Structure formats: structure tokens, C-alpha cells
Automatic annotation (TrEMBL):
Feature: compositional bias, Acidic residues: 767-787
Species of provenance: Collichthys lucidus (Big head croaker)
Main location: nucleus
PANTHER family to which the protein is assigned, alphabetical: WD REPEAT-CONTAINING PROTEIN 75
Gene3D superfamilies according to UniProt: YVTN repeat-like/Quinoprotein amine dehydrogenase
Protein's UniProt name: WD repeat-containing protein 75
Keywords of the record: Nucleus, Repeat, Ribosome biogenesis, rRNA processing, Transcription, WD repeat
Region (Disordered): 761-812
Amino acid sequence: MVEHGDIRVVHRGGSKINFREPVITNDSKFLLCASGECVKVFSTSTEECLHDLRGHTDLVTGVIIKPSNHLQAYSCSADGTVRLWDFTDGILIKTYVIGHPIYSIHASASHEGVVFVVTSMHADKRPDLLQLVAVHLPRSGDQMVEARELSAVLSDVSSNPLAIAFGRGGEFIASAKGLQLEVYIFRKQKAYRFFLKEDNKKGGRNTFTCVACHPKDDCIATGHEDGKIRLWRNFNQKKEYTYSTLHWHHSAVSSLCFTPEGTNLLSGGIESVLVQWRYNQEDQREFLPRLGAAITHIAVSPDGSLFFTSHSDNKITIIQSCLKVSAAIQGLVKGENVTTDLMMDPRSKSLVLNGKPGHLQFYSLQRDKLLYNLDVVQQEYIHESGLQQFEVVKAAFDASGTWLATVEERKQKGAEVELNLKLWEFDEQTQSFVLNTTISAPHEAQITDMCFCHSTDNQTTMLVSTSKDGHFKAWQLDAQAHTEADERPSWSCDFVGAYHSLVPECCCFSADGSLLAVSFQEVVTVWSTASWELLTTLSQPPKAIRNLCFGRLSCSKYLLGTTGNNLLCCWNLLTCSLEWSTSMDVSLLLADPISENMAAFCRQAGSTDLFVFKPSEPRPLFSQKAVCPGKVTRAIFAPREEMLESCEESSQWLNRSQLYFLTQHMDLMTFTTKVEEDRLMASSKQLVIDDSVAMTPFYLLLGKHRQQDSRDAQSISAERTPLPQGSVAIKELLQTPAHVLPSTSFLCSMFVQSLLISVTDPREEDKATEEEMESEKEEEDSEEEMESGTTRPEQAPLGRQAAESAAPALTKAQVRELRRVKKLDRSWFAGLLDS
């Protein structure tokens, strides 16, 4: 077993963008959100990801805009650092080392040079005891600075950043945890604590969930587990404090946010409804329902024109202040688990898996963006815990991407499982999948596996499903069996198979579609798809077969399977015998559809190892220990659009396909070569600025002049040197923010010299050109006279003719340049020699 260091495991997308509250820039053009170990910068107008701010080595736990500079942002991470970014250009400016894991970060304009972080200062004594600490950021020119001046503000605070908020421009800070609300007033240097009973008289749960402070009044809004909102006043007088109660949510309030002017209060929860309360007129409220999933965070742009809501389905919704949805930024939907396999849509080349309840999501791997959702269940999802609803559990594509099969089921206590098998046909006109056939109760028990016959030679499309009822069924598309009223093709059951009343677990078609392998517990049966005759059976020691996979191309004669007693077996179908077997705990086995390669993920000591091999060769092509902690749940080989040109033998298995896999934490990972990763990093570091966004007023002021100058230069002469404003250096100088540029004195001389260009009167240039043309004409005439007056011998030696024929002919431009050189005055050189 050889491990190769040239191949590395990298994060390829799918990170959560709803982990923390989204941050909006002052001009409302950018949206920043924590996403795994990086910070993503989105455009609010195009919803595209403009930058990935990478530098943290652990989970990013908070992002805020720097109060004194709206073009910079702070981010904190569990790696114990606070980093300062220029998010418009994606540049890391400075790193402040705190030395302790940071759970959230806060800042206020009234506390310049100070950020407030939640961290554990006494990890040895009580790691769960968190403190709100004021960090004084040192002023230094170094890239990495250690922040040593720390002062505790509040003790025993929550790790949830929604439970801490500044009020009245930083005059006080409120923190809620459990049943306690604590308010610290900076002017008095004093903290006030308020307690609630665990349950009220009506049985409501009073536990605090979130906090928001009014921007202008002494008012604190708190959300609670029973769905109530309390507005606290007079909290600077502990004995005279009061609070009023608002109630609409039937479950816990997840987030609260005041508008910048304080006229409205926004709230959200599991109901996926945004509620807008009028401040001091709480009986007047407006609703924006059916936002798709539970609301986890609410944010408002600094000008109050846009609202932003994060949702549990990894989505950020952009809402206008009139409560109208304008756009949505959708990431890879993170459910509790992936019930379907990872699939590739042959048409869109997108990754397909189950997303939000009752849907399939089509996710672009290249753009790291959700393309669209397919509503499979076609029923409104009710957000209520304990309610059993239909869920998509299986899905499969045919080879051309024309047909999609889905299985949905609903489990009910004390009742049989409800099953629906649906066949979807791709419509060329609408460019979407349209429901063709619905089969209610295709089996009497749960469906364990389903697959299409991927052979392109077969005239008919075939689907096989296996079930716990002890049968497998072959569904066949009969394109001829349609009536005049319905011209669409129909599906019918072509065959029902069983083997000794055993339960089938998995099935797989051969590459040419002539064989079907179905595992019945510890027995593998091989069937002929033409006659549905049982050809042979392959048995192993008594343990159930968990995976089945046929070889591809030159290895199509092999059938591989994994067993419950940690065996990987390879059968030769030509001899119907066991070719080889090895002992390993394979959790996932899959084949590359366009090569002979196969991948096996093996569990080992709390982590997962990877082995890439060919069934015909005993030595693996690639192996890597501990590709990720925990178990790999799903994986897939995705064909590349452009084949890589890798010379390393260890990485040639990545030339035509790329291997993606999902970890137990729902992170989408992939394998890439060092050369490929370096090329991607180099391209991401290039400064790419869209003219439609992030325009500075200085750039807009000079943009019109630059365009006008370029048009004038083109109209005067095509060969004329372009104006310096069009150069790359000047463009970067005008577009780069001033706070990251060198001093003005350093740039002034170079900038002024670049603006100095030689200007010549067009009339003088025309006159000089005419004189030059006249002199050239006179020289040509004189040369012709000399050639006519000279008599040449009729025959020349053969050597001279060969030399003349071998000499290359000069172009007109070269002849003209040669004449110019002849005219040069070299008298100064003669005078130099005489001296």
C-alpha cells in the first residue's frame, strides 16, 4: 500500500452559509457570511459568490463590518484568531492572535480599536464557562500581531451570537443565557441582572433564545422558547424595570432584529414566516409567509431598504422593505442525512441528491451553486415536529438523462409504509422534468435499491427495484403501447423475481445491460435481462451482501461485492468462481463509469481510508489513510469536462473523473492534484473587478474620460500608442482602495511620468511622411537607373545562382528600415575616434 502526497483532499463546496447571521455592507451591494473555514462574499444584485476569504484554519464563527472603515471586515474563528479583510478585493490585511477559541465577535462604533469576542479564558477549569472579552487591537505594521490586552466584560455568556447585542450605539450591551438577562452599561461600569421563572402560569417556557436592542431608545427585545417576545424598559433601574409581551409564534423565536430607525421589529422562527411588528404599535403587524424553511437569522441593511433571512435549508433570502422577496442565495441543502445516492445529471452535469423535504436538488459543482429544486412529493410541507410526511428516499437517472425515477415513502406508527414510485420524463420545451407515471404501492414493503440499465445499445429503457417484501421487479418503458388520446409512452411491470423467499438488498446492471445481479442476503444471483432466466448463483460465508458493482470496460467480466463480515470479494463471471477476496471493512464501493477504476472507502479506527484499484490488478493505484474523520456516507465519480494531462502515475486515475464524497458532517469533499490546486489558487488571486459592482466614486469619475480617450485614440490612428489610462497598472491604481495602497509620495512621481505622453501636430506628421515618401521614391528611381545602366553577364556561375536563390527576400518594411539606417549621421562617432 503506497500513499501519494501529490493528491490532497480539499473542500469543494456545500458549506453552510446559514451558520451565522449574514452581514450587509453599507452600500447594500455585498453580503458576507461565514461558510466553513472561509468567509464568502456575495453580490446582492447577481447572487454570485465574488470572493472566498480564506486564511482561517478552523471553523469561522463570526463576521462583522469594521465600524471605522466600511470597506473592511473582521472575522473570528475557532483557531483563536481575528482576521481583518479587505472584502472588495479579497485581501487579508492583518491577523490578530487571541490564543483561545472564539465563538462570536461584536463591535461598536463608540469603541474604536476594540472588538468584543466570546471565548473561554479558563479552558482547564470550566471549558463551558464563556466570557465576553474586550480585545484592544494593537496598531502595528506586522502582518500577524498578538493581542495581549484583554479585559473581561461579562462572565457566563452564551455561545450563541444572537444572545448578545449592543444598544444605543454602544452605550450598553445585553446578554441572555438560560433564564437570565444581563445588561452592562459602559458609562456606569455596572451590570444589571434580571431573572425569569422557568415556566409561567400558563405553562410557557421562559428560556431566552435571542436578544435585539433598539438603536435609539432604551429598549431590549428578547425572544423565548414559548414563542413570546418581551420588550424590556427601565432596565437601568433594577427595581423599576418593566416589560411588555408580544405573542404570535407558536414555537421558539429564533431571531430578532430592529430596523435602523427603530420603527419596526422583525422576528422569525420555525414557521418560516417573517413577522414585522410596529414599534410602540405592536397590534399592527405584517407577515411574509411561506419562505420555504425555518428562519434562523434576520439581518437588515444599514439603509433599511433590504431584509435578509437565513433559513435552515442553507438559504439566504433577500427581501425588500415592502415585504416582497427579491432574490435568494441557495447553498447545498443540508438535511439530517442523505437518503438518496449522489447522482450526476447527464444533461446539466450537476450533482443531484435529496434536499429540502420532498424535493431533489440539482447542484452545480463548478459554480458551487444550487441550480434548481424538483418538487417530487408535490405537497405542502408542514413544519411540525413529530408529524410523519412523505420523503424522497431513492432516485436514479437513465444513461441519457431522459428519465428520472424517484421513490417517496411515509412511515406511520401502527400502519404500513406508504410508497410511491414516480417516473419523470425530461421535457425539451420547458427544460425540466415532467411527471409521466405514478405507481402507488409498487412493493408491499420498503424499497431497498433501484437502478436503471445504462446500456445505450438496448432498444428499451429498463428499471429494476428491490424490496424487503422478497421480490425484485423490472419496469419497462413500452413506447408503442399508447393510445390516440395519450401519445406519451407508458411504463409497465415486465418481470417479478424472487429467490428462496430471501430479502434482496441491492442490484446492479452490467455495462452492456445483458446481466442483472441481485443480492439475496448472502447469495448473489445473476439474471439474463433478455429472457429473465437465472444464470448462476454466487455464494459466500453467511453474511449479507451490502454492495454490488460490475467492472467497466476491460474489467467488465468481474463482479465485486462487500459482505457484512468485512470481506471485499471479486467474482469472475466467465468462470463463475471467486477471483480474489480481501479482508477490509468497506463502507462504500463505487465504480468509475468511464474507466476501469473502482473506489472503496474503508472504516478504520474512527476515520475512513480510501483505496482506488482495478479489479484485474492486485496492487491499488492509490491509497490514502484518514481522508476524513468519521464515516463517508455517499460518494460519486464525476466525469471531467476537460481531461487533465497528468504525468504522475499515482494521479492518473483523476485525469478523466473526479471523486466527490460527503462526510458525516455533510461537507462535500474531493480529491485534487497539487498542480491543479495551485492553478486554481493562482487564478483566484487575480484581481477580478466587475464594472457593475464595487465602483468607487473616483473610478466612476475617470471612467467616462477613459472611454472617451480610447475612442479618440482609435479614430486618430490604429497604430498610435494607447493612452496610459488604459494600461493595467493605471487601472489597478484607480480601482484599488486607498487604504491598501502605498503612500502618495511614493506613487506620485511614477503616476505623473506615466501621464506624460508626446503630442505631435498631425500636420507636421503628415508633412514629414510626405517628405519621407518623396525621398524613398527618388532613391527607387536612382536605383532603377543604375540597374538599367549596368550590363550583367548572360550566364552566372552555378554557385552564385544557388547563393542568390538561398538568400531570403526582404520585405518592404525591412527595406524601408534599412534605408533609414543608411541616412543616419555618424559624424559624431568619427569625431569621437579622432579625439
